[in-house]
Design brief:
about 120 residues; alpha/beta; four-stranded parallel beta sheet; two-stranded antiparallel ribbon; 6 strands; globular; phosphoprotein; PTS_EIIB_3; PTS_EIIB-like_sf; PTS_EIIB_2/3
Length: about 120
């Protein structure tokens, strides 16, 4: 699974992406996580199965959800205290809950599964 973490400038999303990547690795999950910005989102969406949106981008959530839906990508608005999730496990659980528990393969718009 490919997780995109989006924030305004890319700094805080880098920390969240790194933490969730480590948490997934520690749990034996083959997830990748990378950081992006609101500005790079139109390009970054093509490489993501899940988009984690920084709480400070709530004003852009409807647009992000619309753009992600066109690609079959799940969007999760992160809570305002997410930056205190030092080991990434809470963030990882938000991802897994959004994709149906185990966080296995995700269906694409065409019906095929993506790992």
């Amino acid at each position: 699974m490919r997780i995109l973490v989006v924030c305004g400038a890319g700094a805080s999303s880098t920390f969240v992406a790194q933490r969730v990547r480590h948490a997934a690795h520690d749990q034996g999950l083959a997830y990748s996580a990378f950081a992006g910005t609101e500005k790079s989102l139109p390009i970054d969406l093509d490489a993501a199965d899940v988009v984690l949106v920084g709480p400070h981008l709530v004003h852009a959530l409807a647009r992000i959800e619309r753009d992600a839906a066109a690609r079959g990508t799940t969007v999760v608005l992160l809570p305002s205290d997410i930056f205190s999730d030092i080991d990434g496990t809470r963030t990882l659980e938000l991802v897994r809950a959004a994709v149906g528990g185990s966080g296995g393969t995700l269906p694409t718009a065409g019906g095929a599964a993506r790992p």
